[in-house]
Amino acid sequence: MSKVVLYYIVSFIVSCRRRRAGGGPMLRLCLALGAFFSILTAAAQEVDTVQRLDEITISSQRAPSTLRTATPTQVVEAGEMERLGALQLSDAVRQMAGVTLKDYGGVGGVKTVSARGLGSQFSAITIDGVPVDDSQNGQVDLGRYTLGNAAYVSLSQGQEQSSLLTARAYAAGNVLNMETAQPAFFPGERVKMKAGMEAGSFGLLSPTLQWELRWGKRLTTSLWANYLRSRGDYPFLPYETAPETLRRDHSAVWMATVDGNLIYTLAEGNTLSAKVHWMSGEHELPGPLHLHSQTPSGQSSDEQLAFAQAKWKVERERWRWQLLGKVRGSYDAFLDTTPSTFQHNDYRQREGYFSASASHDLTPWLELNAAADASLSHLESRQQRQTLQWQVQTDVTRRNLSAAAAARAHFKAANAAWDLRANLVYTDIEDRLEGRDQRPSYRRMTPYLSAMATLGQGTTLRLFYKESYRAPNFGELYFFQLMPKNLRPEHARQINLGITHTQDFHHLHFSTTLDVYRNHVSDKIVAYPLHSMYYWTTDNIGKVEILGLDLTANLQLPALTFQLNYSYQHAVDRSDPASKFYGHQIVYTPRHSGGGSVRWESRWVNLGLTAMVVGERYSTQQNLDKWRLAPYCDLGLTADRKFDLRIGTLGLRAQVLNLLGVQYEVVRSYPMMGRNWRLALTYEF
Predict the structure, then answer these.
(1) Is the pTM of this model over 0.85?
(2) What is the DSSP code string of 165-183?
(3) For residues 638 and 654, what is the distance between their CA atoms, to the nearest angstrom?
(4) Whole-angstrom Cα distance, residue 211 to residue 69?
(5) 411: Cβ–Cβ under 8 A, 6 or more apart, which residues?
(6) Cβ contacts of 47 within 8 Å, gap of 6 or more
(7) Beta-strand (E) ranges in 181-298?
(8) By the 8 A CB rule, do 239 and 663 touch?
(9) How far apart are CA 683 and CA 197, in angstroms?
(10) At 411, is the pLDDT very low, low, confident or very high (cuts 50, 70, 90)?
(11) DSSP string for residues in 541-598
């Protein structure tokens, strides 16, 4: 009888798990009631047979905490990304506090992120903890990475709170990580598939297919494929006084992505994972607006990217260590077919990367960590002009070595639980230009300190100080010229003081975070486009001082969820008091920004409303009215519903984006898309 009881209890647990993947108090109540009624049911049966239970394989991917961390951390999980209709990585970070997203319009426009005014290059972009690099414009374009198989996206200011970090993650000013979803199976399941189709305004079409397979007790694999295209010919008004509406010209995009993953469990706490990723796409590059018309553009870019990475992670009672490696190749081509300015440039980049990290619990309250990274990158660029003769423009190899040593102490004292962390990072970079004796090198040691005190169950105080050192990358130094630019490395100092609080009142859950910070950047590198999205220029600003505040709040009721965030950034040039730029807000950084969302869930339909508000910005270093970009508010409305079918689950979603049809610019002369719609259908079985 005891085995029958166990069978009913496990069956009921699995049933609850299917219905409420989110867990929480309701799940615990279900488990308790299920166990009670299962015992009564089994006792009433006169069955004495032995039944064999299927193995349960459930993935336990835990997103980083947003409340119990010494550094501010924001997370967007898969469920929320699906409800928001997020297609690209940029969609997931758009409403995060303290984030400035540069967007050049439409689905195919370049999208880069800057956190707390530090600039996009201080943000380490990682996939499953492995750094991503990109030769195009020297910046990682978030629009090139789609979210269909992501478990969550997290942004950690200062530093991630993990025992096993790469040395690059230790060195970065902040880390934006996209974690791939691991396959999860219920009893008896060996194969899972998910097919989806999304369509929208201006020719948007995006089919998706995901396939997951459990080969045995230890091996699971997944394959995800996506195709995305859009004409991008949305209407806009060149100026408010313009007599007619124009359509965006030459802004079509297509992009195909395939992502394969393997997870092999060698033993308990001993896991090997691998990823193979391929992307190919073509983007037409629209010209900027001038006066009452848009500049005709014959420009386009062609990108191909492929990488393979592997991670071996071992966790023991007191030891943890991790090895990871990556090889990457990319091809970027720029074509301008305008007869007077014909040009064809291509850029080929290859990279090999290896990292080792380890963690040891020296005592019950003291933990020691270490990491070492090594990478070798090679960039070759060529130009073809009216002569139709290829010329080698740049051939450069970069060797990058970095190492980190860290310690963590956690204990209870003075009615609080304390968490203290410290680390030191060494960076050593050297470039070699073929055919030249020049070997630019960059070396620096940078520290990090943090303290967190947890008061009771709901309140946390946190403080961190960090120095970051960033050498100019390939794009900034060599992307468009034979000789390297005379750019100096950036050096940033960050200090943050914050408080988090969470409270439960019966069926109500409330959480909030408040952080104030000061960032000081010496020799800040600022990038901005010239006559197209592809051609950028970079300059050093002597000193930039950033004073800011980030506020987030979350309120959950049984059927309603409210989210709110607000950011204030006073990011000004402090280089030379005699300069006409002194005290002016830095380029494209709003002083006030924020957003919010409300979601209502019912048995008939789920409704969501989102808002993103951005204050005025300036497109040049000098804050004059003629360079001012007006503030804007972008509203979105979503309705979705899932239907449980005899076999599988059907999901439907409808969205209206930029509900009020507001015309605005994130970057001057590149108008954003007005009101547009999207419809999505998914079938999971």
Answers:
(1) no
(2) --HHHHHSSEEEEEEEPPP
(3) 6
(4) 35
(5) 365, 417, 418
(6) 4
(7) 191-200, 204-214, 219-230, 235-236, 246-247, 253-267, 270-285, 289-290, 293-294
(8) no
(9) 9
(10) very high
(11) EEEEEEEEEEEEEEEE-SSEEEEEEEEEEEEEE-S-TTSTTTTPBPTT--SEEEEEEE
Nearest to 216 by CA among 61, 52, 55: 55
Q: Are 366 and 408 in contact (CB under 8 A)?
A: yes
pLDDT in tens, 101-139: 776 666 666 677 778 877 767 778 888 888 887 544 456
Cβ neighbour number for residue 531 with a 10 Å cutoff: 12
pLDDT value for 107:
65
Q: Where are the beta strands (DSSP E) in 231-365?
A: 235-236, 246-247, 253-267, 270-285, 289-290, 293-294, 299-315, 319-336, 343-363
Residue identified by tokens 């808002």 is 611
Residue 290, both tokens:
């001038």
Structure tokens at 388: 């139709």
Q: Which amino acid is at 92?
A: A
Are the C-beta atoms of residues 97 and 566 closer than 8 Å to each other? yes
The tokens describing 564, both together, are 């709110």
The pLDDT of residue 52: 39
pLDDT in tens, 304-345: 999 999 999 999 989 999 999 999 999 888 888 877 777 788
The answer to whether the CB of 320 falls within 8 A of the CB of 164 is yes
Give SS3 for 87: coil
- The token duo for 98 is 């303290």
Tens digit of pLDDT for each residue in 185-232?
Answer: 888 889 999 999 999 999 999 999 999 999 988 999 999 999 999 998
The contacts of residue 282 (CB under 8 Å, 6+ apart) are 253, 254, 255, 300, 301, 302, 303
